[in-house]
Amino acid sequence: MPYALEATNDFVVKFANVNGSGSASANELFARSILRMGVPVSPRNIFPSNIQGLPTWYEVRVTEKGYLGRRGGVDLMVAMNPQTWKQDVAEIEPGGYLFYDNTRALPPSAFRNDINVIGMPLTEICNATYTDPRQRQLFKNIIYVGALSALLDMDAGEIEKLFSEQYKGKEALLDSNVKALHLGRDYAKKELDCPIGLRVRRADNVGQRIFVDGNSAAALGCVFGGATVCAWYPITPSSSLAEAFIAQCRRYRVDKQTGRNKAAIIQAEDELASIGIVVGAGWNGARSFTATSGPGISLMQEFIGLAYFAEIPATIIDVQRGGPSTGMPTRTQQGDILLCAYASNGDTKHVLLFPEDPKECFDFSAAALDLADRLQTPIFVMTDLDIGMNQRLAEPFAWDDAKRMDRGKVMGFDDLEAGRQFGRYLDVDGDGIPYRTYPGTHPRRGSFFTRGTTKDAFARYSEEGPVYVENMERLLRKFETAKTLVPAPILRPAKQRTSIGVIHYGSTAPAMNEALDVLEGRGLHLDALRIRAFPFPAEVERFIAEHEQVFVVEQNRDGQLRSLLVNECGIDPARLPPVLHYDGTPITARFIIDVIAKRMAT
Amino acid sequence: MTYITKPKLHHPSLPTNRLGYTRRDYEGSVSTLCAGCGHDSISAAIIQACFELSLPPHRIAKLSGIGCSSKTPTYFLGNSHGFNSVHGRMPSVLTGANLANRDLIYMGVSGDGDSASIGLGQFAHSIRRGVNMVYIVMNNGVYGLTKGQFSATADKGSKSKRGAVNSDEPIDLVGMALQLGATFVARSFSGDKQQLVPLIKAAILHKGAAFIDCISPCVAFNNHAGSTKSFDYVREHNEALNRLDVIPERQTIEVDYEPGSIEEVVQHDGSVLRLNKLAPEYDPHDRIAALTHLQERHAEGEVVTGLLYLDPTPRDLHDHLATVEKPLNVLDEAELCPGQEALQRFNAQHR
Lengths: 602, 351
Ligand SMILES: Cc1ncc(C[n+]2csc(CCOP(=O)(O)OP(=O)(O)O)c2C)c(N)n1
Ligand code: SF4
Ligand SMILES: [Mg+2]
Fold this sequence. Notes:
The complex is a heterodimer of chains A (about 600) and B (about 350).
Chain A: E1 7-8, E2 10-18, H1 23-36, E3 41-46, E4 55-63, E5 74-79, H2 85-91, E6 92-101, E7 116-120, H3 122-129, H4 133-151, H5 156-166, H6 171-191, E8 198-199, E9 210-213, H7 214-224, E10 229-232, H8 239-252, E11 264-267, H9 271-283, E12 288-292, H10 294-310, E13 314-320, H11 337-341, E14 351-353, H12 358-375, E15 378-384, H13 385-388, E16 391-394, H14 413-417, E17 449-450, H15 465-485, E18 490-492, E19 500-505, H16 509-521, E20 527-531, E21 533-534, H17 538-545, E22 549-554, H18 560-569, E23 578-580, H19 589-601
Parallel strand pairs in A: 1-8, 2-5, 5-6, 6-7, 10-11, 10-12, 12-13, 13-15, 14-15, 19-20, 19-22, 22-23
Antiparallel strand pairs in A: 2-4, 3-4, 9-16, 14-21, 18-20
Chain B: H1 38-52, E1 60-64, H2 68-71, E2 81-84, H3 90-100, E3 105-111, H4 112-117, H5 120-129, E4 133-139, E5 142-143, E6 149-150, H6 173-179, E7 184-189, H7 193-205, E8 209-215, H8 231-237, E9 238-240, E10 242-247, E11 262-266, E12 272-277, H9 287-299, E13 303-310, H10 317-321, H11 333-336, H12 339-349
Parallel strand pairs in B: 1-2, 1-3, 3-4, 4-8, 7-8, 9-13
Antiparallel strand pairs in B: 5-6, 7-13, 10-12, 11-12
The site of iron/sulfur cluster has 12 residues of chain B, from loops.
């Protein structure tokens, strides 16, 4: 008998499936039912750039302590895909478990002798119970969830409750799902050794948190933030954001009396058109946004520069992924930081927000719409595939009904009628932000001509050097103002005084928090600063100044945020050792701990 | 280059329109284009059309791409908001602006390089979406602003100023607009104000994608013998199908014409387009026949002008999207934000 792993509420289950086999909803059901038992889980979809037939994986980390980063390693593999059998079996930790369909016998060479093998004739059971091929396929997934519920000692009542919520009013479906669940569960109880060493035990660590993906969250943030124009072009991993916005507008933005829509959504012909539409709408006073990924941002460059110089509000949500179009489109990365920070030709820099999870995707998308209007410039929300396309446990969303949209400095009819001076690019109060007017406001006053930089403070044509310089310096003042408006960084001080710090941002947060706990347990103390925006608020420079060494942890090859710190804050790069993870999988606490512990030991 | 404003002194004897504005109120700053450039005549026609229609200047938004043609919005409608955007991308900016506020009139100005070369995609997609706009291409067959390279509308076999012969097939924007479902399609000539002004007026009144291809000779780079976009060539080969009168709703219409030679089309706002047919057999409501006719005449080297196609009951992008009547840019929190209660329901559904 091989050694058998023992763990309660702290293990990793990985499902190996075939794309398009209907396994996704069964796997989600599995994850949710553990949540309902009060035990946090953190699932991740690992999928290829393909619709049907290729392998997909769903990795669920069960974590009573609430560590939502990817752990690495697999304790129980549910191997449902013969195609990937070898690599799936190889991935199991020694002493771990392999659950598979043994309807067809496999030679002993297909297994390992340091793992525990659990075979169940899933196909046979299905074929004996169902005649319809589709039903056989779908219920096979539910049957294995039933078996797992017995093997892991889970409460089947929670799964039944989830079914009854899902199939409210569709009793036939409800009954057949419950039946399939028990078919699997009863078989396992009777024929298999239940439970195995891995167990789920009821806890109370989920609380009020919600389970939602970052793309839906960001879309909802745009609804609440008052976006009325959305233009997009499909690209993984951002498409589901625009699609969520479409669905949410159907729910929240249909005028009850007339049935008409309080939002305009355009699936554009490409990203040049999507950003053009966003810029046109922003120019004309509507809150507008686009959702895209790196290749889309590459195409948008010229317009982003125009919006920067012509000072037009635009919200751009970049759900980051790997390289170009054939560059790991279904893998995560923080690879667009520099691309976005300095997007376009000429001297440009842009405001970036870095949400850590769906909660901040919601908050920051709404905030971006305010910031875009306030600062009259493009605002980037830099999320990524890991946050965007995975359901994540997050604090419940909250909204203050007293909050009003910040439409920024806009002169209306009354201001103009009263003879208030209007200079479209005139800095009247030192913050670098001028007033604007919407087209159509006043019959004789306040109209202006929008163009790039060949203009003076009153938007009149000018190619004069000093006029250009004055305008460019005002834009810098505006960028300074931005530092005071963007989300401030969050400090997690070490338990002991330390001269070592660590900076991280975005989806690295859960792995980082876990790593800090472990490092602290080993007596390695670091102050941690989670940066939430660029330009960097003053606290960032102060934090670096207060530490001898500051690790910068990010998910790209070139240390892009580190470059921004060096460049914008004038910091000696030697003081910023990089911790870089960029193989397309989400960064893990184990990885961070390894690099930092090694470095601190020397 | 500096910005030149015209003195805004009104001569008391200048005629005023229904809103009390004079023609001067629709002008912009002094043009910096080459003397004699066709584009300036189109600017003048736009000014005339807006003045005659008594449009409040500030309710018009003028948008353009990049090129000599795209500079012209500075030279007309000085009391309107304008946007000189990026090369070939005016259509998307205009589309976004239109979505934000459906109550303004959108005037998109572009060049043949801007719309048929770099911006062909955006031209096509804005037309097929049915954006309610007037889309004018000032078509000179060359890139004026970058000094005379062929554009994609240059006819095959036409000669550049330096003597190079164009070997590429031309793109016919009018043909494309017809195929892509534009509900108003016209072609005109900057040298024929009589024809152009009513066409612009009719396009403005049209509630849908209205496209005007206006041949507009570039005197600096494409007005020589061997060019098919020169003043001389177009004058010689201009085949006008019809002449248009735009009759605002308030005026009574006197019927006094030969049956068959005149057609009156009532627009959605009640105004009437009176078509004086010069080619009585041409039916401006038959999209397919229009395409055939254009291609036949083009093969003969002729330039067909006039109102080529009109759908009197167009639907625009806002109709397709079923957006609310109120402009999106004035909707407030109460209308847009579902609020905390809805959010709590959302939270509950995600546990
Ligand atoms: C991205 C980009 N590429 C190239 C240019 C240079 N450029 C400016 S205007 C122009 C051609 C304009 O031609 P057209 O639209 O026919 O206008 P015209 O000057 O003839 O009226 C070009 C290529 C540019 N402004 N932007
Ligand atoms: S170069 Fe040609 S298009 Fe440009 S202003 Fe001169 S004449 Fe007009
Ligand atoms: Mg041209």
